[in-house]
Model the fold of this input.
Amino acid sequence: MKKILSITICIIMIAISFAGCSSPNAEMTEENITKTVETVETALKEFDTDKLGKYVDSPTLTTIITYSKGHEQFTKLGQAIFENLTIEITNIDIENSTVTISVSNKDLSYTANNFAKELKEQFSSFQLLANLNNDDFLDSKLQWLCNEIERAEMLPNAYEITLSIEQRDKNLVLSFDDGAEDAVSGGALTGIKKIYK
Done:
C-alpha cells in the first residue's frame, strides 16, 4: 500500500513540475516569450477563448470572444479563420519588450469583403446587431462563411509583424494592433473594414 501511495505521489509531483515548466509565466525571458507565442498560436487555431483572453490584448478578438461565449458558431468561425495559421518567431527584443513574428494564413480578404458586402446589402446595421443573437441566422450565415474560408487559397507570402509584450502578474500578454490582427486573420479585417468603415 505504501508503495502504491509513494508511486502515485511521484507521478503527481512529476505532472505538476512538468505543467509548471511547460506553461509561460510573467518573467520577460526568451523562453517565456517563445512559450507565450506558441500558446497564442495554439489558442488561435483552437479558438480557445479562455487562453486568448489571458495571453492576447486585441480589441477585435475581445469583441468576437464576447459573442462566442454564448454562440458556438463564432467559435467555429474562429477555428476556420485560424486553422491554417502558422507563426514563426524571427526576433525577440527583451529590452524593448517586443517579439517579431512571421505569419502565414489563407488569403481571406476577398472572402471577408464579399461576406460583409452581402450582409450590408441585406441588413441595416441595427438588423445585423439584432441578428447576432439569432442562432438560425448565425447557423446559416457563419456556416456559409466557414465554407468559403475552406475554399480560400494560402497567401503566397508571409507577413512580418512586431508585437508589444506586456508583463502582467501571472503571464506575458501579446498586444495586437489593427495591422497584426489583419495579418493573423489573412486580411479578413481589412476586407470587412472596406465595407463597414
